[in-house]
Amino acid sequence: MTDAEKALRALLDQVLKERGYEPTEIKIQEMSSGGRNYTSALFCISLCFPDKELKLFAKVAHIAQELREVMQADWLYGTERFVYNRLTHLYNDLQKDLEDEYRFIFPEFYGISEETGKETVIMENLVASGYETYDRLKSLDWDHGRVGVENLAKFHALSFALQKSDPETFKKITANMTFRLGGDDQNQSSKDMWMQSDYIESMLSVLDEGDRDAVRKIIMNSTLSKFNKPIDKPVISHGDYRLSNMLFKGQGDDLQVRVVDYQTVHAGCAVTDLIFFIYLGANEEFLRLYFDKLANHYYTSLEEALKRLSVDPVEVYPREQFESDLKEKLAYAILVGVLLLPVITADEESADNDVAEDSNYVVKTSDLYAQRLRGVVSDCMRRGVL
């Protein structure tokens, strides 16, 4: 039995005791992330009862001790605990009178452990309920993009609603919710992980020579944390809102989505989540055809979500401010394209290499990465970012 499974079983025993569950059989199976998760070991759990079977899902911390500081692991796992232990309760209270189709729905949460090095979360298994992952190697399509931004708008609307209904609580919560990955204030090891010059140059090598200098200038004068700082009043942002952290069920008008990772929630700017979602999920053709349409759909969805929560959109986030913020933050697409697209587009064999054990881990570039990054750069050029 691995250390991760031992940690999981310890928390599971606690959950069963607290809930009074007495299963006749417990089945635990470790699963591959398929390149969707680099910091946790993943497990499927089946609790067998005489009249039913309860399907659960678990994540257990899987980062070597020497990499915890580099990866900001304490912040990642601590943020997830905060979301499940507090933010979900605040948000669910705000939307308790809404019908399910209008609510931002968190996965049902069963338990969490904060033991350092063995941080564990147990939640419902959405796959067992018919939800499926989106192929991370495929470009976003309209329906998944539409549902994704509608869901994001619901998430951001709850932040504005909390700020209005309980400004003191909102102020206390967001006071120390800084995005901590790739920041100027990090130690040298952490900076090197994100901004190794050899790594950056390797990623830029897929671009035409004439484009590299312009992209390199943005990369070397930016940080992830810089782009994730609020422009004006903070919004509680997701920070890693991408297809790999989402599960979908149904199709067309009946398509539903659930978000399953909350390790990078922070006080930031709403448009960075939107840029992150679209640019890391789409190819050049989709960006050309649908970026403006999706951005508009996000804002109209936000207006509707705010009104359902009795918040005036004009008072908290007028369209002019949204469009200004979007323009100001659009270069974020270049930064995350260079830093994160290599991981997102890596084939499963490369993706399953143990990044959590190797501070020198480098994902090999692929033809898909080259195609997608060129698409990001081309679209940003068309919009005047470069």
What layout of secondary structure does this protein have?
Elements: H1 3-19, E1 25-31, E2 40-48, E3 53-61, H2 65-68, H3 73-94, E4 109-113, E5 120-124, E6 132-133, H4 142-165, H5 167-174, H6 188-195, H7 197-204, H8 209-220, H9 224-227, E7 235-237, E8 246-249, E9 256-259, E10 266-268, H10 270-281, H11 284-308, H12 313-316, H13 319-329, H14 332-344, H15 348-351, H16 367-382
Antiparallel strand pairs: 1-2, 2-3, 3-5, 4-5, 6-8, 7-10, 8-9
Helix pairs in contact: 4-5, 4-10, 4-11, 10-13, 10-14, 11-16, 14-16
Characteristic key phrases:
single chain; 386 residues; alpha+beta; 5-stranded antiparallel beta sheet; 3-stranded antiparallel beta sheet
What does this structure look like?
It is a single chain. This protein is of the alpha+beta class and 386 residues long. The chain has helices at residues 3-19, 65-68, 73-94, 142-165, 167-174, 188-195, 197-204, 209-220, 224-227, 270-281, 284-308, 313-316, 319-329, 332-344, 348-351, 367-382, and strands spanning 25-31, 40-48, 53-61, 109-113, 120-124, 132-133, 235-237, 246-249, 256-259, 266-268. Helix 4 packs antiparallel against helix 10, helix 10 packs across helix 13 and helix 11 crosses helix 16. The protein is globular and about 65 Å long. The chain starts with a helix and ends with a helix. It comes from Danaus chrysippus (African queen). Residues 121-308 form the CHK kinase-like domain. Pfam families: EcKL (PF02958). InterPro entries: CHK_kinase-like (IPR015897), EcKL (IPR004119), Kinase-like_dom_sf (IPR011009).
